[in-house]
Specification:
The complex is a heterodimer. Chain A is an alpha/beta fold. Chain A contains six helices and six strands, in the order H-H-H-H-H-E-E-E-E-H-E-E. Classes of the chains: A alpha/beta, B mainly alpha. Chains A and B meet through helix 1, helix 2 and helix 3 of A and helix 7, helix 8, helix 9, helix 10 and helix 11 of B.
Chain lengths: 209, 277
């Protein structure tokens, strides 16, 4: 596909305008057509994308880090306010006139007070969405098998399309029934709605086809 | 680039007014003089957009900086240096070893300054994107020159997989032929999407940077494109390839398509490996 090299390549100026989305519609259509046919220009565009991506990763923009700190600060503030409000709801301990008693003021007060909330609750590990966006880290190992995320689908590394093994498509509506029928496939259900696994010499293709 | 003695017309007055609103004219270049640069850029575009819409779509402050640099304004060059010199070097180092990247950086800065390359910046992109594209172009050229001269390792020489067996190679080539035939039936936009993803190996993040679309949109379009490709391949199932005697296999399913697409799209007769079939 598209190995021919058109005589005139996209100039860097044109490529930059395309990247920033500032082309007229006729220019855009012409450039897309050119890129679809010209491997050299496609490679340049891809190289730019990779370099820009790498640069962004190596030096996160100030805005992004500021957002992280702002959200942490907001969490901390909310936790503090919640803690103070909780303490205020408790009847004041006779020994401590202040409404904002510390948990260690007296043993009796401490025993009535709830445990102070953590300043910043540890966030649960974020599950990466199992779609095309996880492609870069798209590798999982389950039950001794390795799966790779390819175009939104987890593929068992044992799967070789050229082996021409018998295959069974498992529609979402039949998923539970198949997992009930073949318990050995259940561990792979964590891969999400779409995956391909080889078991017992049969290729099971879960998900809508 | 500009002609400050030109008589101002209606366009010029409108553009100069817009410039005064949007640009902090911090160099010797006045809004009135800079308006000529914008009008000239509009004339070069020869597009249907009127000048107000054209000017509104420009990265106007970047263009002001570039125009001032092109006039040799030292203050402007200082600002340009502070904002972009390290970026140019960092970007070049994404492509080349440090020494070669420094060469590219120095060469490009020399071109921008001495050869007035900066005067060709037309504001259709930000200066940052434009410089990135310039660095990419220069770096790829430098890398190709170095590879031709044999000073950089040509990684493809040592590609794994040179020992695939004959049957597998034949099957893969058959598959690649059909995928490539099917891809030619797609529209240009879908084809580009597919090729950037599978042939060039970009992630959706990277594609969204250069295609101005969200990852979700790209993901949906890619999914539709794969469906279209599958349909096209299915349609070939009963064909006989004109240059082959073997019928197209009936079992070209989506899983196989996704598994092998990158290899199939990267395949070309001159890249044939192994058996020489």
């Amino acid at each position: 596909v598209s190995k021919q090299q058109p005589a005139r390549h996209l100039a860097p100026d044109d490529m930059a305008a395309m990247i920033d989305g500032n082309l007229r519609s006729d220019e855009h259509a012409a450039f897309v057509s050119h890129l679809a046919e010209c491997e050299e220009c496609r490679e340049s565009l891809a190289e730019y994308a990779r370099a820009q991506d790498a640069l962004s990763e190596s030096a996160p923009p100030f805005g992004r880090s500021r957002m992280v700190w702002m959200s942490l600060a907001a969490t901390l503030t909310l936790a503090t306010v919640a803690g103070v409000l909780t303490l205020r709801r408790q009847p004041p301990a006779p020994e401590v006139p202040s409404a904002v008693a510390t948990p260690t003021a007296t043993p009796s007060a401490a025993s009535r007070l709830p445990a102070p909330p953590p300043a910043v609750a540890p966030a649960p590990p974020r599950e990466a969405p199992e779609d095309l966006t996880t492609r870069r880290s798209g590798r999982r190992e389950i039950g001794g098998k390795t799966f790779r995320l390819i175009a939104g689908e987890w593929i068992d590394s044992a799967y070789d399309p050229l082996a021409l093994l018998p295959a069974e498509d498992v529609d979402p509506s039949a998923r539970d029934a198949v997992l009930a029928r073949i318990p050995a496939l259940r561990p792979y259900a964590v891969l999400g709605p779409r995956f391909v696994v080889v078991y017992g010499g049969i290729v099971y293709r879960f998900g809508p086809r | 680039v500009t002609d400050p003695v030109r008589a101002p017309g209606a366009d010029h007055l409108a553009v100069a007014g817009m410039i005064r609103d949007k640009v902090r004219c911090r160099f010797q270049l006045t809004a009135e003089d800079f308006a000529h640069t914008v009008i000239d850029a509009h004339a070069r575009q020869q597009g249907p957009r009127d000048i107000a819409a054209f000017a509104a779509a420009l990265s106007i402050d970047d263009l002001y900086l570039a125009a001032a640099c092109a006039r040799g304004d030292e203050e402007a060059w200082r600002e340009f240096r502070d904002r972009y010199f390290s970026y140019i070097g960092d970007f070049a180092r994404r492509f080349l070893p440090a020494a070669a990247a420094d060469d590219v950086r120095d060469q490009l800065i020399g071109d921008l300054w001495q050869r007035q390359r900066l005067a060709q910046y037309d504001g259709r992109s930000t200066l940052r994107t434009w410089l990135g594209a310039m660095v990419t172009h220069a770096s790829i050229n430098a890398r190709r020159s170095a590879q031709r001269a044999g000073t950089l390792a040509a990684e493809k020489r040592n590609e794994p997989g040179a020992t695939v067996n004959r049957e597998e190679d034949v099957a893969r080539r058959e598959f690649a032929l059909r995928v490539n035939r099917a891809v030619t039936s797609l529209d240009a936009e879908s084809k580009l999407l597919l090729l950037l993803y599978y042939e060039q190996g970009l992630t959706l993040d990277q594609m969204s940077t250069v295609l101005n679309a969200s990852k979700a949109t790209l993901s949906r379009r890619l999914s539709k494109t794969r469906d279209a490709l599958r349909t096209a391949i299915d349609a070939m199932a009963d064909d006989r390839s004109p240059d082959r005697t073997a019928p197209v296999p009936h079992h070209l399913d989506v899983s196989r398509l996704e598994w092998d697409l990158a290899g199939a799209l990267g395949w070309a007769p001159q890249q044939k490996r192994g058996s020489g079939v």
